[in-house]
């Protein structure tokens, strides 16, 4: 399901593939009033960040076409870019089948989405791989950084040297 914010139609309506309109009601009650919002670059599909929305944030996003979220630490709404200028112009909203999470497809203005200055909050690891090893209870997380250096971490209850590589 998707909401296209490029059209002049009512923002509360969703067009299906066969162009029939229907109303949608997101389920904000299921998770204490908040739903996760996965944010993707509308052109490349790159995941930029994860944030949370309450109903007021979702409605403001629909009204302004600028991504607005609910800050769990500050207990208030915030529009992405209001202080940094790194605004997210929402082009499309996709709703999951349970109506309790959304994907915002955005045009990201400025340097990027991450508050640490990166284009994406998921920057730094080009590949993450988890593999179960032959030693019971041993799990190794291998992370490959952008410069190709390999970092390995063992299961919290075992030293990496106790795990068979």
Q: Based on CA inertia axes, which overall geometry fits?
A: globular
Instruction: Kindly report the average pLDDT value.
Output: 76
- Segments where pLDDT lies below 50 for 5+ residues? 6-19, 125-133, 143-158
Structural class from helices and strands? mainly beta
Helical content, roughly?
under 10%
Strand/helix succession = EEEEEHEEEEEEE
- Major beta sheet, specifics? 5 strands, mixed
Which value, in Å, is the CA radius of gyration?
20 Å
Strand order of the largest sheet: 1-8-9-4-5
Query: How much beta, percentage-wise?
Result: 35-45%
Tell me the number of helical segments per DSSP (H or I, 4 or more residues long).
1
Report the span from N to C terminus. Answer: 44 Å
The number of E-state strands comes to: 12
Structural summary, described in words:
The protein has one helix at residues 55-64; strands at 2-4, 13-15, 21-23, 35-41, 47-53, 68-71, 76-79, 88-95, 102-108, 125-132, 139-145, 150-153. The chain is mainly β. The longest helix has 10 residues, at 55-64.
Give a short synopsis of this structure.
The chain has 1 helix and 12 strands, in the order E-E-E-E-E-H-E-E-E-E-E-E-E.
List the SSEs and their pairings:
Layout lengths: L1 E3 L8 E3 L5 E3 L11 E7 L5 E7 L1 H10 L3 E4 L4 E4 L8 E8 L6 E7 L16 E8 L6 E7 L4 E4 L12
Parallel strand pairs: 4-9
Antiparallel strand pairs: 1-8, 2-3, 4-5, 6-7, 8-9, 10-11, 11-12
Quick tags:
three-stranded antiparallel sheet; 6% helix; 165 residues; single chain
């Amino acid at each position: 399901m998707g909401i296209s914010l490029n059209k002049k139609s009512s923002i509360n309506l969703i067009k299906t593939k066969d162009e029939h309109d229907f109303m949608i009601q997101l389920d904000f009650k299921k998770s204490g009033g908040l739903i996760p919002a996965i944010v993707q670059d509308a052109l490349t599909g790159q995941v930029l960040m994860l944030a949370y929305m309450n109903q007021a944030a979702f409605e403001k996003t629909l009204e302004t076409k600028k991504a607005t979220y609910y800050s769990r630490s500050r207990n208030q709404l915030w529009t992405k870019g209001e202080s940094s200028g790194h605004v997210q112009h929402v082009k499309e909203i996709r709703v999951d089948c349970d109506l309790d999470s959304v994907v915002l497809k955005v045009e990201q203005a400025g340097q990027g989405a991450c508050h640490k200055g990166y284009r994406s909050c998921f920057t730094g690891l080009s590949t993450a791989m988890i593999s179960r090893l032959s030693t019971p209870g041993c799990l190794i997380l291998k992370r490959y950084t952008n410069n190709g250096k390999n970092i390995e971490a063992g299961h919290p209850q075992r030293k990496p040297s106790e795990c068979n590589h």
